[in-house]
Design a protein that fits this description.
With 299 residues, this protein is mostly beta strands. The chain contains one helix and 27 strands. The strands form seven sheets. Strands 1-24-23-22-21 form a five-stranded antiparallel β-sheet, with no helix packed on it. A hairpin with a 4-residue loop joins strand 18 and strand 19. The longest helix has 14 residues. The chain is globular and about 55 Å long. The protein starts with a helix and ends in a 7-residue tail after the last strand.
């Protein structure tokens, strides 16, 4: 218990060390609010996802488990095995989608059964689907680095970014990433952001009418001391981009200007939730935290 208390104290003290290009009145983190640990003692948490009925789902990749947390009941096992799920999201019908390190994008149906949506590209096994986002037309965009696939099982020679739809099947959008990871749309869905864990930068792509993307460019680079890397990303309703990165949380304007850098121990992914979607949930990775923000996020 003393060890857990010390770890939590170090997290809070570190997180309060804030660097910002904004005045205090413009802070995106609610003033005088500290990150609050909501649950702990995990192996490597990822993929936080808020449900509007008032609970949070998140993955523990090595434990092969998806957990469910609520303020009233705490954390409990939601799905095990999970296919070593990483990123989680909901489709347009409210079904849970999972990016599984076991090599697939999977969906939970109304009966709680897990079925594979896609697990190969042109007959070759996907590497290790990492994170995913659903567009308003129902198509699924996801990243496929090589984090969770062995050399023996790896069949693709690249780490891709893909789009999947019933009409067009699986489409390879980009194949020149080193380690594609977090993925998110701008609020108007005209831009797609994808970060690269190896280079700690974020690339932005214009989304075409057919759902494919242009060549893209580097949107922002995160260079700092500290643990962590470009990983999970989210946006708020104003189009500001929130990304994990070396040293903690990085927040950029829609034009790529660094608005705030919040130093903390390593965080792996983010999710908006809570009242009015103004709480940022963060996996960190042996625990999950929440932090009250001033902006309203987009799930």
């Amino acid at each position: 218990m003393m060890y857990q208390y010390i770890i939590r104290l170090v997290f809070v003290i570190s997180f309060l060390f804030v660097f910002s290009t904004l005045s205090i009145g413009q802070q995106l983190v609610k003033e005088n609010v500290e990150p609050q640990q909501i649950t702990s003692n995990y192996e490597f948490t990822e993929g936080p996802l808020w449900h509007s009925s008032g609970y949070l789902l998140f993955s523990d990749i090595p434990a092969n488990t998806v957990y469910k947390w609520s303020a009233e009941k705490g954390a409990s096992t939601y799905l095990k095995p999970s296919g070593h799920a990483n990123g989680l999201t909901f489709d347009n019908q409210g079904h849970l989608l999972l990016a599984q390190h076991d090599g697939a994008i999977a969906r939970e149906n109304e009966r709680g059964e897990i079925t594979v949506v896609i697990d190969n590209y042109k007959g070759k096994r996907l590497n290790s689907p990492n994170d995913l986002v659903v567009k308003s037309d129902g198509s699924i965009y996801f990243t496929d680095p090589s984090f969770g696939v062995s050399d023996e099982d790896k069949e693709l020679a690249f780490q891709g970014v893909y789009r999947y739809s019933k009409k067009n099947g699986l489409q390879l959008l980009v194949d020149d990433f080193a380690l594609p990871n977090g993925i998110v749309f701008s609020p108007d869905e005209e831009k797609l952001y994808v970060n690269d864990s190896k280079h700690n930068h974020i690339r932005v792509f214009k989304v075409k009418k057919d759902g494919t993307v242009g060549s893209g460019e580097v949107f922002a680079t995160m260079e700092s001391e500290g643990d962590g890397a470009a990983d999970g990303m989210k946006v708020d309703k104003d189009g500001n981009l929130y990304s994990t990165g070396p040293g903690g949380l990085w927040i950029f304007s829609p034009s790529g200007e660094l608005l705030q850098q919040l130093e903390s121990p390593r965080i792996t992914n983010l999710a908006w939730g809570g009242a009015e979607n103004k709480t940022l949930f963060m996996t960190a990775p042996n625990a999950v935290y929440k932090l009250k923000m001033t902006k309203e996020g987009i799930q």
